[in-house]
């Protein structure tokens, strides 16, 4: 009986993985359930479907984030799985509905920044600008120290600083104007 259930779930996953231009929420659910059983089970599905491990984990993250929210599948499908993955990673808990609205009005490339600004109640601030600095180690230590003294902090996960934009503006505003 167990082998029948295993082979039918494997066939279902293969069928779902083969669908093009659809949101693979059913596949995400199948992967999530397989991962609950064991990593080996998930590996079997990946091998059988040809799905890459990274995409599988993105799908699992999407399923975990949206499964219990009772959002219609059609609404999720309208956003697209790439934007759902971004929302799963960047949106504040409880803000999924708002994030879906923002996702409909923005590109996948811009969505992480929009979600970060929205978390800080900065939605609608307008155009943003990116600045790339190439600093040597000693320069970066000074830069990081200044940003931390004006409120930037290490993230709970990953590298860099959280709140660096606001900290930089506070630091710059603290410099007396000579004009």
Task: Briefly summarize what is shown.
The chain has 179 residues and is an all-alpha fold. The protein has helices at residues 2-18, 25-37, 39-49, 53-66, 73-79, 81-90, 96-104, 111-119, 137-149, 164-173.
Q: How would you describe the overall organization of this protein?
A:
The chain is mainly α and 179 residues long. It has two domains: 118 residues, Arc Repressor Mutant, subunit A; 37 residues, no CATH class. Helix content is 63%, strand content 0%. It is built from ten helices and no strands. α6 runs parallel beside α8. The chain is elongated. 22% of the residues are buried. The model has no long low-confidence stretch (mean pLDDT 80).
Structural class, by secondary structure, is mainly alpha
**What's the main sheet like?**
none
Low-pLDDT residue intervals, each spanning 5 or more residues: none
Q: What proportion of the residues form beta strands (DSSP E)?
A: under 5%
The level 1 CATH classification of the largest domain is Mainly Alpha
- The CATH topology of the largest domain, please? Arc Repressor Mutant, subunit A
List the defining traits of the structure above.
elongated; 179 residues; mainly alpha; Arc Repressor Mutant, subunit A; 2 domains
List the topology elements.
Elements: H1 2-18, H2 25-37, H3 39-49, H4 53-66, H5 73-79, H6 81-90, H7 96-104, H8 111-119, H9 137-149, H10 164-173
């Amino acid at each position: 009986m167990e082998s029948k259930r295993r082979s039918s779930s494997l066939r279902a996953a293969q069928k779902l993985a083969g669908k093009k231009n659809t949101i693979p929420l059913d596949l995400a659910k199948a992967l999530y359930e397989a991962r609950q059983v064991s990593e080996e089970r998930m590996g079997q599905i990946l091998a059988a479907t040809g799905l890459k491990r990274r995409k599988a984990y993105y799908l699992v993250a999407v399923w975990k984030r949206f499964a219990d929210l009772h959002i219609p599948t059609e609404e999720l499908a309208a956003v697209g799985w790439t934007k759902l993955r971004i929302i799963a990673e960047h949106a504040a808990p409880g803000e999924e509905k708002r994030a879906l609205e923002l996702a409909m009005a923005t590109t996948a490339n811009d969505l992480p920044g929009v979600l970060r600004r929205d978390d800080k109640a900065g939605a609608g601030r307008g155009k943003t600008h990116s600045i790339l600095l190439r600093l040597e180690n000693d320069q970066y230590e000074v830069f990081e120290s200044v940003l931390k003294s004006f409120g930037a902090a290490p993230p709970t996960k990953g590298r860099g600083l959280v709140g660096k934009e606001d900290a930089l503006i506070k630091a710059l505003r603290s410099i007396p104007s000579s004009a």
